[in-house]
Design goal:
Radius of gyration: 19 Å
Shape: globular
Strand order of the largest sheet: 5-6-7-8-24-18-17-11-15
Number of helices: 1
Number of strands: 24
Largest sheet: 9 strands, antiparallel
């Protein structure tokens, strides 16, 4: 996700990655990145499988990275009516050299509905977390600390986002350290409509959930001609900690040859 100065020191080698224009920071995997390429896609049973090979040296990353994301959907019914839907992303990767990896999914949510304007009336909860990672606004990187949320606007418990964001300069763009056990897919965060009738819950085995309040949305036009202004959507990104490759106390993000990266993100939609 984010790497200080675009520098990675690994096994005695220094790798220089692409830098984001406005910061001395590598962001979103670079200018090519996995979000800006066309993936191969095929139907496998009841799933949709996306695959892509990122060649050695892409945006400065070492190794030929092979990634497979399997997407599946299932529903939950009660009394003959569908009451919820689960969208699961199973992410796997291998590489022929040691390389940093931090895969996530970056959808925006506004549970008050399409083209309903600001998402600040939505209610947000982060589950079972040990604290949040303060950010340096000049580098958009964590300071390296994990801080208690008690008595702060980061204590998110069925909270109306608009009531708390006024005390967060620039808006939410922060990672929360989840307490879930490694390898266990558990609840990370939930966002609900203002009347709490519609909600989506994020479940994951990632160590963190990054909350981004659409601070830089700038009028992009979307579905049906809707205009997405600042705070029109909230992103809940299950991932490792930003800049983990340069902070020894953060969870390891190095994938080595012969290993397999395996992570899951599941969205549970309830209505």
């Amino acid at each position: 996700s984010r790497i200080a100065h675009g520098k990675v020191e690994l096994d005695g080698m220094e790798y220089l990655l692409a830098l984001f224009n406005n910061y001395d920071t590598h962001l979103h995997g670079g200018f090519v990145g996995l979000s800006k390429v066309v993936w191969d896609c095929e139907i496998v049973g009841n799933t949709l499988q996306f695959s892509h090979t990122q060649p050695d040296g892409t945006d400065g990353y070492p190794g030929n990275l092979e990634v497979v994301v399997t997407v599946s959907i299932r529903t939950k019914s009660s009394g003959g009516r569908v009451k919820g839907t689960f969208l699961s992303l199973d992410m796997r990767a291998t590489c022929d050299q040691a390389t940093p990896i931090n895969l996530t999914f970056h959808p925006y949510f506004n549970m008050d509905g399409q083209d309903s304007g600001s998402a600040l009336d939505n209610k947000l909860t982060v589950f079972d977390y040990a604290g949040y990672l303060p950010m340096d606004p000049d580098t958009i990187l964590p300071t390296g600390e994990i801080v208690s949320t008690r008595g702060t606007p980061f204590n998110l418990d069925i909270s109306r986002i608009g009531d708390l964001i006024v005390d967060v300069p620039g808006g939410y763009d922060h990672t929360f350290h989840l307490c879930s056990k490694s390898g266990f897919v558990g609840p990370a965060a939930e966002i609900a409509s203002c009347d709490e009738k519609y909600r989506v819950r994020v479940l994951t085995d990632q160590p963190g959930i990054h909350v981004y309040s659409g601070n830089f949305l700038d009028g992009t036009r979307g579905k049906g001609g809707a205009v997405y202004e600042k705070h029109s959507g909230i992103a809940l990104e299950a991932q490792n900690f930003p800049n983990a490759v340069n902070v020894p106390s953060f969870p390891c993000c190095i994938l080595r040859e012969g290993e397999e990266y395996k992570k899951n993100i599941t969205f549970s939609f309830c209505f």
